[in-house]
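Pipeline run #58 for the internal structure catalog. This entry was flagged by the ingest filter as a single-chain record with no existing model, so it goes straight to prediction. Upstream metadata was stripped on purpose; only the residue string is passed forward. Reviewer on rotation: M.T. Logging verbosity set to normal.
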Amino acid sequence: MVLGKVIGTVVATRKEEELVGLKFLIVRGIDLEAKATSTLVVAADAVGAGVGEVVLYASGSAARQTEVTRNRPVDAVIMAIVDELAVNDDLRYVKE
């Protein structure tokens, strides 16, 4: 899993039938200081995340392991919304 921050949405009215019903969000990777990295992905949302939230996402074959994405052609999925991020007892992020 990778840390990221949801920065936008993707709307696609025409898509493969297996993607119907999925919500797609744009996620920018973040480091352990919650600072943006150059990584950008479009991820299917399995947990109801929204723009501005810090999330955990998985990519590759792991992205097809959630109940929402099982056997669907996705390469990234948001699988958790982060409430807190601490490194060596140093609190780096707290959800507002």
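catalog note: The chain has a mean pLDDT of 95.
catalog note: Residues 3 and 56 are 5 Å apart (CA to CA).
status: ready for reviewer M.T.
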